[in-house]
Amino acid sequence: MSVLNNITADNPRSLIKPVFYTTTANLAGVIPFMLLVGAAKLIFNPFVHPDLPLDTARLWWVCGGLAVSLILLFVCEIPAYRAQYRDAYSAAADGRSLLAEHLRKLSLGYLNKRDPGELSNMLVGDFAMLEHGISHLVPQMIGAAVMPVLALIGLFFLDWRLALCLFAALPVAILLVLLTSGIQRKLGKRHMRAKIEASNRLQEYLNGIRVIKAYNLTGVRFARLERSFRELMRQSIRLEGMLGPIVIGAVTCIRAGLTLMVMAGVHLLLVGSLDVVTFVAFLIIGTRIFDPLTTALAGYAEIRYLEQAGERIVRLLREPIMQGERQPPADHDVELKQVTFGYRDQPVLRNVSVSMPAGSFTALVGPSGSGKSTILRLIARFYDPEKGTVTMGGEDIQAMDPEALLRKVSMVFQDVYLFQDTIEGNIRFGRSDATREEIEEAARLACCHDFILKLPNGYDTRVGEGGSTLSGGEKQRISIARAILKNAPIILLDEATASLDPENEAEIQKAIDRLVRGRTVIVVAHRLKTVQNADRIVVLDQGRIVEQGRHDELLTYNSLYARLWRRQQDAGGTADD
Ligand SMILES: Nc1ncnc2c1ncn2[C@@H]1O[C@H](COP(=O)(O)OP(=O)(O)OP(=O)(O)O)[C@@H](O)[C@H]1O
């Protein structure tokens, strides 16, 4: 991966405009400078050649030229400014959207391995650094190098001896920065790791603040957070402590060149082999190239640091997305054939084979952690199995376009996530082009309409963080309304484990009955009485299918299902498995 790809998040073209305009503006900036040298020459000429009068007419022309160059500079700097800011920010915004889009297409298995704090840090913090690189650092560094390079060429023609003195120490300064770039990189990496760790700990602390308070873990958790902050501070000091001397050392080398030039100039002047006008020109130019060179060297060190943020983004962008192009078939039979799967090394499903014919109702039951929800995730292709296949209409779903496959599936999860949006907007996630009437109809079928009308702004009430809060049962019904609106032929339902009040439970059951009518339904059931009428009940234990059949059939086996059933009956039908 090249430096340019890294610092632009794989979009080096985003640098073209900022660099072009900034370089043009810097080139235009050389004109007043040359005019200034010309003016100095005119003013000092009578001192060198006392027989010549001061050429006031040309001096006025130079002044006029200075005024014109000021306007030219203004005209050149406006597009440079616009290119630097507008284009850099829009490149970063595009990059962020691209990365967010890419994250959606990656397998959940990959995302599970990453810390959510690290990902949000990349999307916000790392991109902000690249924004700064594209808008400021790179154009300014290249722009800053323009003047010294031109000065180097011009001054060698004017007097090669003084030019040699002035630039003698520059290679040493450049070498110093380049030779230490390995150490800078290592320290930069450590600093970045400490930054990610601190942001992960902070996110963990904020997300878990309720649990931390409830269990009085404030001391323990806060100590972890504080440790990560301290480590970040240590790495920041180490990084700055290293960068500072390098940049100061490089700047001192450049300064040494200026001193050397002045000493040589005085000597040459005294022995009469240099005229005062040339010396004055060297003094003006020598002091003016000092600032841009310092900017360029310091900018280089900073770019090497932000390159690492870019490298992480580029690596993530190149992570292969879930493959598959075929459109799902019209037939909605679902089948798992000898499927083995684990989230990490631990196997969760072992050699599972189960067939769910189109239009049938299948219930997955079994003890907690037996792998029921995992089966739903594999059918929706959140993950691909390690061994075996999941098929739809007889075709392997791994060959299918994951997004097209998801259009065939409606999922109702245990924990419902409501976006920070209105109730209408939240239901609309089911189908973005739905009309208000269709949304209300779906809400009616999902038994939500009445409670929605009682909210302060009805369907326009904002929910989610910072909005109205809904009860667990109400959230469930909103998610069922979403699924009804989506109208997909396959329904995957993960029944809520939390106990609801009888009224809410009855409403949810009514909503589910309407949702599943005439579709291929696969339900993870915790309350066995809700799936007594299922076409097939699949009983899982430790990732294997131990029994399957209809309710009455399974009771006659007098095995795991019968035991679970009796236990729930004894507990009044409400106890969990
Ligand atoms: N994202 C994940 N990463 C790692 N392990 C996971 C993940 N999701 C689930 N597991 C583990 O896989 C096993 C099966 O989980 P799964 O959610 O499929 O069980 P389940 O039968 O649906 O359980 P429950 O009835 O409690 O919802 C459990 O041991 C669980 O800890």
Automatic annotation (TrEMBL):
This is ABC transporter ATP-binding protein. GO terms for molecular function: ABC-type transporter activity; ATP binding; ATP hydrolysis activity; ATPase-coupled lipid transmembrane transporter activity. It holds the Pfam family ABC_membrane. CDD domains: ABC_6TM_exporters. Residues 53-303 form the ABC transmembrane type-1 domain. InterPro entries: AAA+_ATPase, ABC1_TM_dom, ABC1_TM_sf, ABC_transporter-like_ATP-bd, ABC_transporter-like_CS, P-loop_NTPase, Type_1_exporter. SUPFAM superfamilies: ABC transporter transmembrane region, P-loop containing nucleoside triphosphate hydrolases. Gene3D superfamilies: ABC transporter type 1, transmembrane domain, P-loop containing nucleotide triphosphate hydrolases. Signal peptide: none annotated. It is found in: Cell membrane. The chain crosses the membrane at residues 20-44, 59-76, 137-158, 164-183, 237-258, 264-285. It comes from the Bacteria. Keywords: ATP-binding, Membrane, Nucleotide-binding, Transmembrane, Transmembrane helix, Transport. Residues 334-567 form the ABC transporter domain. One of its GO terms (cellular component) is plasma membrane. It is a multi-pass membrane protein.
